[in-house]
Specification:
The chain is an all-alpha fold and 255 residues long. It has a single domain, classed as CDP-alcohol phosphotransferase transmembrane (TM) domain (Four Helix Bundle (Hemerythrin (Met), subunit A)), CATH 1.20.120. The protein contains ten helices and no strands. Helix 3 packs antiparallel against helix 4, helix 3 runs parallel beside helix 5 and helix 5 runs antiparallel to helix 6.
Length: 255
């Protein structure tokens, strides 16, 4: 049992997002303890199931009401647990593929738009104001900008230096510093360090933030936080990637 759990823990993303890191990813590992031995359950099927659950959660937000909001919050978490499971299973079975990674990331992007678009509509129904709709639109647009800026920067850097993706992948390698086989103090220190990631306001933070807002019916304040955080991070990340492109080109010219 311990050996299998150790191998499953090794499939956990080293630099995972906040909330994913210490909640949904570990829950995914526990669920995978049984699922990885079932042949017909494949990573791609889990990706599809995750997206389907995300769509149902969005419908629950649109329907509205306390019961539907709470159900949607639970479904959002279930969707994200499944989202963690597909990659873990692929790495455990050693069947990871570019195609699977593509659809996994694509559905992640779409479901954020669905969740917060639905939240904007639900807040509009509650307040009869279009402000929440615009907040949702701003948040979704600038969250998408974060990913688009990364894609454009990668395309430009690779065109200038074909070895750029390989070099960047080498820089991202991280050592395992916590988990099974590590002591209480090491795991506690890791947990404390992980809390800094809440300021990144990425998908892992959205899972927690949106769920809490639905449970306590505080959608409008959550949308303000969503819009402001994505406006900041989308603008900052885009500027930072443009700056890095300029600096990297200077380094090339100096050779």
């Amino acid at each position: 049992m311990t050996g299998k759990l150790t191998r499953l823990w090794a499939t956990k993303t080293r630099d995972d997002e906040w909330w994913s890191s210490f909640v949904t990813a570990p829950l995914g590992i526990l669920a995978n303890y049984a699922a990885v031995e079932v042949p017909w359950i494949t990573p791609n099927w889990i990706t599809a199931a995750s997206f389907l659950v995300a769509v149902v959660a969005s419908i629950g937000i649109l329907v509205g009401g306390t019961e539907c909001f709470i159900a949607a919050a639970l479904l959002i978490h279930l969707s994200h647990i499944l989202d963690c499971m597909d990659g873990q299973m692929a790495r455990y079975r050693r069947v990871s593929s570019p195609e699977g990674s593509y659809y996994d990331r694509l559905t992640d992007q779409v479901q954020v738009g669905l969740w917060f678009g639905a939240a904007g509509y639900a807040a509009f129904v509650q307040t009869a104001s279009v402000v929440p709709v615009f907040l949702a639109m701003i948040g979704i647009a600038f969250y998408g900008l974060r990913g688009y800026a990364k894609y454009v920067a990668l395309e430009i850097e690779t065109a200038c230096d074909p070895d750029y993706p390989v070099n960047m992948a080498g820089l991202k390698k991280m050592e395992t510093v916590a988990g099974l086989g590590f002591g209480y103090r090491a795991n506690l220190a890791w947990f404390i360090r992980e809390q800094r990631k809440v300021l990144a306001f990425d998908e892992g933070v959205f899972i927690f933030m949106l769920s809490v807002a639905l449970i306590f019916d505080q959608i409008v304040p959550m949308l303000w936080i969503f819009a402001v955080s994505q406006l900041f991070w989308g603008t900052y990340k885009s500027w930072q990637r443009g700056k890095n492109i300029g600096e990297n080109r200077k380094l090339v010219l100096q050779k």
